[in-house]
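The instructor's notes for this session suggest beginning with a concrete chain rather than abstract definitions. Hand out the sequence below and ask the class to guess, before any prediction is shown, which regions might be ordered.
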Amino acid sequence: MKSSALLLAALLLSACAPLPRGTNDLGLVIERSSGSVAVVETSRRRQLARIHGLGDLSHAHVTYSRDGRYGYVFGRDGGLSKVDLLRHRLVHRIMQSGNAIGGSISQDGRLIVVQNYEPGGIKVFDADTLDFISEVPAEYAPGKRAKVVGLADLPGQKFAYSLFEAGEIWLTDLSDPRQPKTQRFHAGRQPYDAMVTPDGRHYIAGLFGEDALAMLDLWHPENGTQKILPGYGKGEQPLPVFKMPHLRGWSVAGQRLFLPAIGRHEVLVAHTGSWTESNRIPVLGQPVFVMAQPDGRRIWVNFAFPDNDKVQIIDVDTLQVTHTLSPGKAVLHMEFTPRGEAVWISARDDNTVTIYDTRSLALINTLSIPRPSGIFFTHRSNRIGF
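After discussion, reveal the predicted structure:
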């Protein structure tokens, strides 16, 4: 009789216990000056917690485990931190280099790869334990190592990245992560960032030293790189560049590619079939991020100083700027919710993250977060190149 009562009590308690929470509506916001990240929830548009002790996050990036539970935070100081979004805590942290600007996760979710400025190259770690596995030094000539930029994960356990000083694109196969195999391709002068198309086929590097971009067809890398969009770069006259565009924000909407023009007050439009320029859209200032809503209907653009308190919206149908928003001082980043009903925008100098309805453009909430910069939602875990 006693055992039956105990069993009944256990069943009642288990029925009242909260179910395990999913992670697909969570995300992290970088707190640029405090070495912390804010854990946020997109469904209720709120902050859940803060996770401390992540080092120098003045330039930081986040990628996620396949299930979205763990975020891997790459700090400027070379720190690599693994955080638990459900338990709101730092799981493990290592110092893996002197200066790093980002990283990525392999297709199977087992490898974390970091791109490093100092020493130049990539390093490979076990995603579970953060144990070191291997390294590919970016030595492009005897005794010379380049800064690595534009790292992107690819199908087939491969990674593409660019070497700034070398003017090269490297393609590394980590099918055997302890014995990386790397191919080298000429890119052009000073590749400064890059992106991979959503299908994982084309890797495109922006060139700061040339009026063109370098594209590598990953289905046929044996054909080498080709220059696309000649004349795109700085234009006819050298122009001051107040902040380098982040090419990971390039947007593919239908058969069009929207990208920021270096140093110019323009967004460029190209056809993805021919890779030729079709339009230039005048905008308020020098664009930094050029991002498409998930439905591809609108393009959102933020700017370098002195226009970094504004965001402009481009209608994809008409290729015209239709709205200008003022989310706050020093807008640094934008991120769309998984289905695109809202966009979150960080305003560093106002210590706020503002949330807008993407249909009505109404301001629907404001979160107080100290010195926010990058916003990274967990649905990135299902996308190539993020």
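Then share the key points. The mean pLDDT is 90. The first strand starts at residue 26 and ends at 31.
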